[in-house]
Amino acid sequence: MAARLHPGIEVRPPLSRIPSKSYAHVKRAFDIVFSALGLVALSPVLAACAVAVKATSQGPVLFKQKRWGRAGSRFECWKFRTMLVETPPDMPAQDFADKAAFMTPVGNFLRRWSLDELPQLANILKGDMSIIGPRPVIIRERRLIDLRIPLNAEAVRPGLTGWAQVNGRNLVSDEEKAFLDGEYVANMSLAFDARVFFRTISVVFSRRGVNREAR
């Protein structure tokens, strides 16, 4: 599976391994510093997104949803709302027969550029998430959680972006996504986190893998 998902890239396969405490402390320090800086530096963008959401559809600016966190915990994940308030809750977007019918006027734009994810910088600052890690899974997606648990992917904080997101994002199957998430945990290091971060920038600007983005 590793050879098919990313041929030519050397990574360790998923293993039952928990990162060292020193790495975890340094990673958390980076998360605090960069999420705080991000919230300040991107405050004009955050304000513009909030105004756009509020001005074009009725309802709250933020969409709040319970997600799986580290070690089976649950937390409230924040996003800019991209769908109408009457949209069925806790349903992945790929399950809608006509997703466009529920999308707000600015929803597609926010998703296309991943701007809807920016409020999760506050989740990172709180300690619910990390900048890099397996993406937080919707509570109803129990099958993906069950696939990830044996690969140790639930032992770390979920991330704003992750290895699965830069290797197909939501175009890979649940089995492939779980494998990639486990692969990330097996290879966790500051260098690997930097690699994922810079590849994320490329993926966002190329807009690859956004057509099945979860709600």
TrEMBL record:
Cited InterPro entries: Bact_transf
Ranges of residues in domain Bacterial sugar transferase: 27-205
GO molecular function: phosphotransferase activity, for other substituted phosphate groups
Pfam families hit by this protein: Bac_transf
Family statement drawn from the similarity comment of this UniProt entry: Belongs to the bacterial sugar transferase family.
Record's protein name: Lipid carrier--UDP-N-acetylgalactosaminyltransferase
Organism: Gordonibacter pamelaeae
